Amino acid sequence: MLTEKRSKAALSIVSTTLLAAMVGCSSDGGAGQDGSSANPQAGNTSSNGKVELRIAWWGSQDRHDRTLKAIELYEQQNPNVKLTAEFIAWDGYWDKLATQAAGKNLPDIIQQDYKYVNEYVARDLLVDLNPYVQSNTIDLRDADHLHTDGGKINNKLYAVNLGTNSLAIAYDPAMFAQAGVPELKPGYTWDDLAAAARQLKSKLGSDAYGMPNFNSMDPFKHLLREKGLWLYNEQANGLGYDNDQILVDYFKYFDALLKDGVVPTPQVTQDIKGLEDELIVHKKSPMHFFNSNQVVALQKAANRPLKLTILPDLPGGTKGHFLKPSQFFSITKHSKHPEEAAKFINFFTNDLKANEILGAERGVPISSKVREHLGKSMGDAAKEMFGYIELAQQHAREIHPPDPEGSSKIEALFARIQEAVNYGELTPEQAAKQFREEGTKELQKK
């Protein structure tokens, strides 16, 4: 299923709870995963004279381990700074941030996503980082603007890209060979993908599926881009496509595979909580849809070689791929030490030893010096990721603008409708109609 699986509650609560933050609601910030208290005093200078910063991110266990080691290195280099980590899986991350925002108690540094930057900026929760870039506190002189522009809104930099990635399909070449099915080569179509999945299912037996059921929003956006369309209109008050048959056909494509047992039922996938649980890890599927930066963690969990390929082409269509910031670091307005936070982001971006530890797990680094350095010693999974970004770039065009404010509710709506289709509670026609009606109503509330 969709990478870093989205909790419907998390997606729906972001806008409403963050809005509460603007009118002064209060809340207990909760505790970090390391057991530390996330209290309103965090970020102050402690009694021993150390600057205390809180930092939050989501991700797999591999990301947690790598990030904690990089933090340890930073504290060794900067003994006056103490960083308190608050890490969690994607499910629950946005809930937690929303609660902290309502209590005016956000961490100093938060991992941010391209989908939500607009919402946080609109609610005046993020610091403009341009002054720190101009002073080289955050040194981006070695980063091409294509890697950094994704964090800009109205010419202000609110987020520093932690790595470039693109939508991808991971596959197990050994399982393809076992089934006698040729590997999917760039230029293959949606029909080719379905045919390959059917062949894989028939050859791999009853314990495996041809591919996951990834009829989620991101592949749908990819299909819209191939049709020269986008999910939102330019005014961000409605959908960007007029013909609901596009979504009907999209759901029908996967529904046919579901009914034929080629993709798993939701009952099979309901217990998947992270990359470690994915079907490909346990050889229950030879393919997995996700963002390319996750291949390092996925291959570690699978403990065998995996490859990456692009999403299918639409005959006669335009390029659907784009290069995307995998995630960002942003400094929140609740930080009492934004300059110290900026120094840590600079370390995370440019320090060679830190990036050896991080291993490009979040995506291809934006610093050319870091990329060159890692290229000398990185493992097979990281090499696959680096090579994939070069491949995806050949099949990509310009990135679309960040999703409009309130898009989290549209994501939650799509996820709810997607689930209803998968469970057979809605037909594709009913689903497409409901998405337009409810989505338009939500977008017009602004």
Description:
- The structure is a single chain.
- The protein is α+β, with helices and mostly antiparallel strands.
- The chain has 18 helices and 12 strands.
- Helix 2 links the parallel strand 1 and strand 2.
- The longest helix is centred in the N-terminal third of the chain and has 17 residues, at 61-77.
- The two termini are 31 Å apart.
- Residues 1-20 form the signal peptide.
Give a quick set of tags describing it.
446 residues; alpha+beta; D-Maltodextrin-Binding Protein, domain 2; 5-stranded mixed beta sheet; 18 helices; 12 strands; disordered N terminus
Summarize the structure.
The protein has 446 residues and is of the alpha+beta class.
Share of helix, binned: 40-55%
CATH topological fold name of the largest domain: D-Maltodextrin-Binding Protein, domain 2
Number of helices: 18
Under CATH, the homologous superfamily of the largest domain reads Periplasmic binding protein-like II
- General form: globular
**Number of individual domains:** 2
The proportion of strand residues reads 5-15%
Major sheet size, sense and barrel closure: 5 strands, mixed
The radius of gyration is 22 Å
The CATH architecture term of the largest domain is: 3-Layer(aba) Sandwich
Structural class of the helices, strands and pairings? alpha+beta
**How many β-strand runs?**
12
The CATH class name of the largest domain reads Alpha Beta
Order of helices and strands: HEHEHEHHHEEEEEHHHHHEHEEEHHHHHH
The residue ranges in which pLDDT falls below 50 over 5 or more consecutive positions are 1-43
Pfam family, one: SBP_bac_8
Organism: Paenibacillus xerothermodurans
Protein name: Sugar ABC transporter substrate-binding protein
Signal peptide: 1-20
